[in-house]
Amino acid sequence: MNKTAFLFFLPLALAANPVFNPSFELGTDGFALEKELRPDTNPEMKFLPLKTAEGAPGAGKNSLKIENPYSEFFVVYSKEFKLKPAIEYRLSAKVRASMKGEKLNFRLLKAYDQWLAYTKAADMTTEWSNFEYVFSTDDFKEESWLHIQIFPVNREDAKPGDFYIDDLKLEETGKTETFSVDAIAAPDKNLYLNGETAEINLKVTNPGTETFTENAAVNVTDDYSGKLLFSEQFNLRLAPGETKIIPLKSRKLERSGGYLVTVKGKNLRTHDSFFSVFGKYEAKPIDITKDFAVAFNGGLEYRMPPNSRKLSYRVYNAPLEKRFEFYAAAGCRILRDHDGGQRGVNWNAVEEKRGVFDFSHLDRQLAIYDANNITLFPVIGCGFIENRPDREQRWPKWVVPLSERVKNNPPNCMAGVRGKVLLPPRDLYRNYIYQTVKHIKGRVPVYEVTNEPNLYLAPEAYIAYLKEANTAIRKADPAAKISGFCLSSDFSASATPWMDQCVKLGGLNYVDAVGFHPYGGRQLGALYPADKYIANLRADMKRYGKPDFPLWNTELYYLIDQHVKHNSYEEGLVRPHHIATRFLIDLGEGVVQSISVHENQLWKRLLTPNHRGISNYHELVPAENMVAYNALARLFEAAKPVKKIRLDNGVICYVYRKEGKLIAAVWQYRKKKGVHADLSAFEVMDLFANPETAEEKELG
């Protein structure tokens, strides 16, 4: 029997490099630089951004240049991408440095449902060399998001100089690489004021060996409403190795909001960009003890040993001052110094060595705040919980052996900190606060004494230290006010029994205001409604004989109604309407200030949105949440509550008076469909303060 032989040409297994802009032909788009600026080597605190330089031989025209003349620690972040489970991958790059003997870590990080890291160091020489790292994703449960981090092995002792990277590839081993045409439409800046013109450029690069043609569109969309602002079409044609920059039509921006810029094309790999539009805010003199204002939690991101072996300030792809310039434009007038690195008034920051006071960090903080019309609201005397040896130290090291470790933990003490509460000598505690307040006398109108003490301190202990703080502050700056207690319902805590004991011990004699953190009553539609939460706190104050005592909301990171995971993921769910409604509730209920969110919740997460880190934004791109605050600052700063109107269908209306005129906020908090209001008799604005047609509207 004759058999006919057939020769089959089996197709090669192909795989595309998932790294966006791997040869940096689009500049530094798709990458961001976080850096720790060192005052000792970089006294002017200069930030040197990522740049491009001449490409490596055999690669494209550009390479990535990381300048590090001040021996500062840095991390370069890539845009995230997905990898498949149970696959062997090869990460490779061309690398060199301007100095010999340095190493750069290349790390692939998976950080959401489970945290996994794959890391290998590249030896850097003054000549281009090839780096390669093979790893397997056998531990993956499913296809997962990762991103690349690049950072020095020598955290603070690296030699000064520059690092260069090119041809950053991630491939499945055994498969042939295919080329992706990358595109991004980038605005000329991330923040505009109403009436300014946006200049957007479409940037496209073709690394392949064949001519590329494609019909593409650039869409600019209101990221909150999903409405298309404008779109522009392009017929792309790029020769092999060609990069094009194509300007879009200039666009005058007339509505406040946050706008997502996307590129659409069947055969394009793209990265989104974003810009926000603010109304112009004009800072006027205010008294934060009387005038309601926009305020955040955060700080200067100051690092001390052992968090950082050198004193440093972390910055996010921009100079240190830039963050606060954005806050000033948004209308932020108060920053509560909390969860933003080492506080300027922390004991460890001002008296690291016994009897030697150094206020240089605090002075730098106040200078930056003053330049941006921001008032420092410091949490002082905070640090009773002993931290891990490798983390930020709360009390100075010399104080710890002098302190009393609490052995009989009170019932209100959280399980995780039992045995870790340290009570320092009271005379030393009082002197630290006195010296600090004396140094900044007249520049800080209100101090908050300790954060959430009802979660770890016995009432007797807190009142003892509150009394010491009161004595120090009143002596050093008699005009300064004191906020105390900082009552938290976080972790399902009930603060009332603890507060009752504090009052019996005379605690209200040592403060001018009571702070609270209403995690148990976030919004009007919550199981424990926000207004009822405040009313019950007021009822307690009446029971204590202080019915009109000032109340400050000084923290509420989780603004959504429901509890989800109580972590950075839940923080990230906060949207502009959560921000606006909580602010307006506190104002309408007569709270002195509403300092709810952390500054981390104000930035757009473009590179690694699926990374479950607290500060996973990496670059300063104001998000729509900041636009909401800008509207609140312009419309409601220094307003006073007038009336509250609640309807059975879940509609709430708060009426306020500002500069002699009435202004109201109305919304429907039960999330019912089909609830309408006739607004034809009013001037109407949306939550970004854009004008709306005065007519019947469905309330949301």
Distance between the termini: 80 Å
Total helices: the number is: 10
- CATH evolutionary superfamily of the largest domain: Glycosidases
CATH class of the largest domain: Alpha Beta
Low-confidence spans: pLDDT under 50, at least 5 residues? 1-14
Structural class: alpha+beta
- Number of beta-strand segments: 43
So what's the overall shape?
globular
| Mean of residue pLDDT values | 94
If you compute it from the alpha carbons, what radius of gyration comes out, rounded to the nearest whole angstrom? 28 Å
- Beta-strand content bin: 25-35%
Tell me the CATH architecture of the largest domain.
Alpha-Beta Barrel
Question: Major sheet: size, sense and barrel closure?
Answer: 8 strands, antiparallel
Protein described:
- With 700 residues, the protein is α+β, with helices and mostly antiparallel strands.
- The protein folds into 4 domains: 14-177, Sandwich (Jelly Rolls), CATH 2.60.120.260; 181-278, Immunoglobulin-like; 294-638, Glycosidases (TIM Barrel), CATH 3.20.20.80; 651-698, no CATH class.
- Helix content is 16%, strand content 34%.
- It contains 10 helices and 43 strands.
- Strands 2, 5, 6, 8, 9, 11, 26 and 27 form an 8-stranded antiparallel β-sheet that branches.
- A hairpin with a 5-residue loop joins strand 41 and strand 42 (691-692).
- Helix 4 (426-439) packs parallel to helix 5 (459-476).
- The longest helix has 18 residues, at 459-476.
- The N and C termini lie far apart (80 Å).
